[in-house]
Specification:
This protein has about 200 residues and is α+β, with helices and mostly antiparallel strands. Helix content is about 55%, strand content about 15%. α1 runs antiparallel to α2 (about 20-65) and α2 (about 20-65) runs antiparallel to α4 (about 140-190).
Amino acid sequence: MRAITGLWRWRHNPLRRGTDLAEAWVALVALVLVVVAAPVVGVVAGSLSRDALYRSVDQQHRHRHEITATVVRKLPQPPLDPDPETSTARDAHSRVIATWTATDGTAHRDRVVAALKSPHQGDTFPLWTDDRGEVAGRPLDRATAATHAVLAGFGAAVALGGLVEGTRRFIVWRMVRRRYARWDRAWDIAGPDWGRTGAGS
């Protein structure tokens, strides 16, 4: 807003310098880019991210399957973790040797992490596997994918806004440096006796 006010005020001002007008135009262009271009970039980035994530969600749901695994025996837990957040998550899961049958009918046996606090032989628990029966992570759901897409769009908009503001500040800094350099040259031309010509000093 200051840029628009400055441009209007300096239109016919006899004291207006070229750098003043240029600085106001740079500020106005930066304002327009931040207000208009940044949201557009955010929406486009969010839409592209959402489409890519939705494709990933569909692919994961096609190739990952929730099956039921059976505990063979419990494995010793790793050493205690001093971090209370990770230790809480660790306490809710156990490392076990389990067996399961993949969707293609093949039998598997491996070390896995079971969502059981105190597993015993014969206990069952859900396990996600891929088409070959190998352990896989839970597939991403659309709500989480949409959240990631929104964050990506917001991040892109903020990044563009920061880039525009940084560029504006750099340009204004260069203008100020040139202005000071011109002043220095003008003082050098005027000399140390500037303003005292004919004063008898």
